[in-house]
């Protein structure tokens, strides 16, 4: 374990994730999706101007790139592997790739078994994102957005949310029974789910 690699990995992943959120806010506002009833009213309430938000997005992506270069210098992983995951995945799909990127930066090699661990975590994250889309279904549809929640309707959204929330617990249970009891540890959060 390397504390500097851990810190640079956190900085890199958080910067890229924050930049993605900023870009999403900018695009939603420019397309007319955000309104006074939206949960993200950064631009609607004029807390920042669109130009300031765009500059913030560039700054955050640049900070993520500085973190990436630092990891290339510090990590035992091959630069090509880090670059593939960073530019090919972390910047576009945070869910599964962030766990793989973090593992690779620390360990220095790719282990696709890490994705098995990342899958349930990503499904829980997707449950949160889907819940937000289901809540905003009507306003998103009025703005011309197309989301899974809009396409499958309220009942389908409830079913999908339940699956995204509880399938990870089933996966961890199967892994715990077949491999190691440590996989059962996430089950302590089940009452709060």
Automatic annotation (TrEMBL):
GO terms for biological process: menaquinone biosynthetic process; vitamin K biosynthetic process. Residues 1-18 form the signal peptide. GO terms for cellular component: endoplasmic reticulum; Golgi membrane. It is found in: Membrane. InterPro entries: UbiA_prenyltransferase, UbiA_sf, UBIAD1. Pathway: Quinol/quinone metabolism; menaquinone biosynthesis. GO terms for molecular function: prenyltransferase activity. It comes from Sclerobunus nondimorphicus. This is 1,4-dihydroxyl-2-napthoate octaprenyltransferase. It is a multi-pass membrane protein. Gene3D superfamilies: UbiA prenyltransferase (1.10.357.140). Pfam families: UbiA. Belongs to the UbiA prenyltransferase family. The chain crosses the membrane at residues 53-74, 81-103, 109-129, 141-163, 169-190. CDD domains: PT_UbiA_UBIAD1. The gene is DNO. Its main location: membrane. The lineage of its organism: Eukaryota, Metazoa, Ecdysozoa, Arthropoda, Chelicerata. Keywords: Membrane, Menaquinone biosynthesis, Prenyltransferase, Signal, Transferase, Transmembrane, Transmembrane helix.
């Amino acid at each position: 374990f390397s504390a500097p690699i851990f810190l640079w990995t956190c900085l890199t992943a958080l910067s890229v994730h924050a930049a993605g959120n900023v870009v999403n806010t900018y695009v939603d506002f420019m397309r007319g999706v955000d309104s006074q009833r939206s949960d993200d009213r950064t631009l609607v309430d004029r807390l920042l101007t669109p130009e300031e938000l765009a500059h913030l997005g560039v700054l955050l992506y640049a900070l993520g790139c500085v973190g990436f270069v630092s990891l290339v210098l510090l990590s035992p992983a091959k630069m090509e592997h880090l670059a593939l995951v960073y530019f090919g995945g972390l910047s576009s799909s945070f869910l599964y790739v962030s766990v793989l990127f973090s593992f690779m930066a620390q360990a220095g090699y790719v282990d696709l078994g890490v994705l098995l661990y990342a899958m349930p975590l990503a499904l829980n994250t997707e449950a949160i994102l889907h819940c937000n889309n289901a809540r905003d279904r009507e306003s998103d549809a009025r703005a011309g957005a197309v989301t899974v929640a809009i396409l499958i309707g309220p009942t389908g959204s409830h079913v999908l949310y339940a699956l995204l929330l509880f399938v990870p617990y089933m996966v961890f249970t199967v892994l715990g029974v077949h491999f190691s009891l440590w996989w059962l540890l996430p089950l302590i959060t089940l009452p709060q789910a």
